[in-house]
Amino acid sequence: MLWLKSVSDEQAEGYAKEVFEQYKSRNGSVPNLHRVLAIRPDVLRGRETLRNATTGGVTTLGRRREELLNFFGATAGGCTG
Known about the structure:
This protein has one domain. It has 81 residues and is mainly α. The longest helix is centred in the first third of the chain and has 14 residues. 59% of the residues lie in helices and 0% in strands.
């Protein structure tokens, strides 16, 4: 259960609803980070723009190096999954 204010599937509107539906179709659920960011759709849009520009094999680094950089960045930041 989240202790931060967040947006439920029923409350999601506009861009947040689109993002939620994309995550649900790909992964079966919406990450809690996105539920919190959906409170401010402009912040959610910025996060998604950054993610789309730096992951999925779209850079000159290639997918494997992108994933390694994401892993090491998350580890350095103390993210445990």
